[in-house]
Amino acid sequence: MIIVLRPDATQKQVNHLVEKIKKLGLKPWVSRGVERTIVGVIGEEDVIRVQPLEVYPGVEKVLQILKPYKLASRDFKKEDSIVNVGGLKVGGKRLIVMAGPCSVENEKLLIDIAKKVKKAGATMLRGGAFKPRTSPYAFQGLGLQGLKYLAEAKKETGLKIVTELMDIRELDVILKYCDLIQIGARNMQNFNLLKEVGKTKKPVLLKRGMANTIKELLMSAEYILSEGNFNVILCERGIRTFEDATRFTLDVAAIPVIKNLSHLPVIIDPSHATGKWGLVGPCAKAGIAAGADGLIIEVHPKPEEAFSDGEQSLIPSNFEKLMKELKKVAVSVGRSI
Ligand code: PEP
Ligand code: MN
Questions:
Q1: Which residues pair with 3 in a beta bridge?
Q2: What is the mean pLDDT of residues 287-305?
Q3: Of all atoms in ligand 1, which is nearest to the CA of residue 186?
């Protein structure tokens, strides 16, 4: 349920309403927009349906939200959300580009990549220290050591760090080293993990599961928001279809669909979506043209020697070239990089 307040509602009236909702054993979430305040009500709504909330002072209307996600919906917040990642704003006019290797491999290589992607215009460094691999025999990541290398790269370049959290037991250490917690496609519906990151204030990059609908992605975001963490960025990273020319199928339409349904920022991952470095550029451009708020791209100087995902990694010079092209696409849709 969403309670829309009148434009002239006073703080006292908002507080009064919030107290009433709490007394009924429900959770109120207040969203202050430019024009008006909206109160989202979470919990067993049957209790409140019988209360005549329309008569409360300051209340304009009460809306029953039929969508299963509420806090993530546009009904709850009309304006686009801007997520602050260590001072970088994701969701504003300026697009955010996160780039780096699939896996953190060693300190020297990571710092070298970090410097190159920064020079090309990236503002965040990606790199997995805990890797979700299909095979248990494949490289599983450097773990804590990898996080320490990411911290060194941050010190050297000032780039913000995005890295994946796979297990609740690693939450504290990931919180210490990253600016943005990545929840990978394979964990999009790990609800306990979502609840735990929801209890923190750290920004979260929630990737769409490869076999999940947009609605399910938004429900997963709702898990994080309903715990109190509104700093969620969504990521379209390709879904499974019958098409096997690409690793996954980039669902470009997901971007405008999500933008209509939700206020949360959306970025795209053309690397995992295609699995082929030659397709990363065209899909990155399509994503920006469709309204994405940023990109996450894999970059490696020697893709043939990469510990993971070499086939889809751009070499730094190609990344630099692509960034120049992306700037033009961004400008054509009223954005900048
Ligand atoms: C990644 O970004 O390294 C990754 C494993 O992505 P996804 O979860 O989308 O497969
Ligand atoms: Mn990868």
A1: 39, 62
A2: 98
A3: 8
Question: 55 falls in which pLDDT band (50, 70, 90)?
Answer: confident
Write out the residue limits of the CATH 3.20.20.70 domain(s) in the chain: 83-332
| Max Cα-Cα span within the chain | 67
- Report the relative pairing of strands 180-183 and 160-164 from DSSP bridges: parallel
The architecture (CATH level 2) of 83-332 comes to Alpha-Beta Barrel (3.20)
Average pLDDT of the residues in 282-297: 98
What ligand has the least distance to the C-alpha of 134?
A: 1
Would the pLDDT of 44 be above 90? no
Host H or E run for residue 296: strand 294-298
CATH 3.30.70.1140 domain position(s) in the chain: 2-63
Higher pLDDT, 235 or 1: 235
The residues near 40 (Cβ < 8 Å, ≥ 6 apart) are 1, 2, 3, 28, 29, 30, 31, 70, 71, 76
Q: Which CATH number fits domain 2-63: 3.20.20.70, 3.40.50.300, 3.30.70.1140, 1.10.10.10?
A: 3.30.70.1140
Which atom of ligand 1 is closest in space to residue 238's alpha carbon?
Answer: 9
Confirm or reject: Cβ of 209 under 6 Å from ligand 1. no
Give 224-242 as a DSSP string: HHTTT---EEEEE--B--S
Name which residue sits closest to atom 4 of ligand 1, judged by CA.
184
Percent of the chain whose predicted confidence (pLDDT) is above 90: 89
Task: State in Å: Cα 310 to ligand 1 middle.
Answer: 13
Mean pLDDT to the nearest integer, 189-196: 98
Q: How far apart are CA 185 and CA 134, in angstroms?
A: 12
- What confidence tens digit (pLDDT) does each residue in 256-281 have? 999 999 999 999 999 999 999 999 99
